[in-house]
Design goal:
Number of strands: 10
Helix content: under 10%
Radius of gyration: 13 Å
Strand order of the largest sheet: 2-10-9-4-5-6
Distance between the termini: 40 Å
């Protein structure tokens, strides 16, 4: 079965940085595009970023473009999201999931990112 385990979240001040990690198992990770989605308190799921299976192509939501970077290590079955210049509105539960776009797909338990001074 598909298993995704997110980690790396925490409390950070505005302008700070975090690196999120997602450990994948139960499927051929290197064959799949992957993405990050998030859910802010009281809001629906929002697609954040996607990366193709080989890592050669990425895409970002306008709200995070030029601040977040998605990457992957297929040898380790790991997906990453580097979050820079964090804003209060980035506060959310962050999830990794299969596929490139959208908010569908199996997710893990998520990792909480809280941006606050």
């Amino acid at each position: 079965a598909v298993q995704l385990v997110e980690s790396g979240g925490g409390l950070v001040q505005p302008g700070g940085s975090l690196t999120l990690s997602c450990s994948a198992s139960g499927f051929a990770f290197g064959d799949w595009a992957m993405k990050w989605v998030r859910q802010a308190p009281g809001k629906g799921l929002e697609w954040v970023a996607g990366i193709r299976s080989g890592g050669g192509a990425t895409s970002y939501a306008d709200s995070v473009k030029d601040r977040f970077t998605i990457s992957r290590d297929n040898a380790k079955n790991m997906l990453y999201l580097q979050l820079n210049s964090l804003k209060n509105e980035d506060t959310a539960m962050y999830y990794c999931a299969q596929s490139y776009l959208g908010t569908d797909g199996t997710r893990g338990q998520g990792t909480q990112v809280t941006v606050s001074s």
